[in-house]
Amino acid sequence: MFVWVFHRISGVLLIFLLIFQLSTGFFQASSSNSELVRTVAPLHRHPVAICLLVFLLIFHALYGVRTILMDLGLERERLLFWICNILGLILFAVFLVLYFTWIAA
């Protein structure tokens, strides 16, 4: 039940975060020096927004693969849940290390 709810909520949040990233990227690329551009442009590279986007993307994708495998007849729901969670945490930890050592530093 948790996976189903999280998968739906993460999908909606991903839509809003992608729209947010696209709109702030537009302001970042703007050559205008207006107050709005100077206020909104730094939000595009904000670490919390980027980390949340990657976290939701990883787990949404893994839970989607889990759902597909269950639809194909794999009946090991609990095992798939733990595999997706462990793999997701490993991928997100690798992302955090790479992001904060190379990109955000």
Task: Give the SSE map.
Layout: H1 2-29, H2 35-40, H3 47-71, H4 77-103
Helix pairs in contact: 1-3, 3-4
Question: What attributes does this structure have?
Answer:
105 residues, mainly alpha
- Secondary structure class reads mainly alpha
DSSP helical segment count: 4
Order of helical and strand elements: HHHH
* Radius of gyration computed on alpha carbons: 17 Å
Domain module count: 1
- Mean pLDDT across all residues, rounded? 90
Separation, N- and C-terminal Cα atoms: 39 Å
What gross morphology would you assign?
elongated
Largest sheet: none
| Estimated helix fraction | over 70%
Q: Any low-confidence stretches, pLDDT <50, length ≥5?
A: none
Number of strands: 0
The proportion of residues in beta strands is: under 5%
Give a quick rundown of the structure.
The protein contains four helices and no strands.
Describe this structure in words.
Helices cover 82% and strands 0% of the residues. The protein is built from 4 helices and no strands. The chain has helices at residues 2-29, 35-40, 47-71, 77-103. The radius of gyration is 17 Å and the shape is elongated.
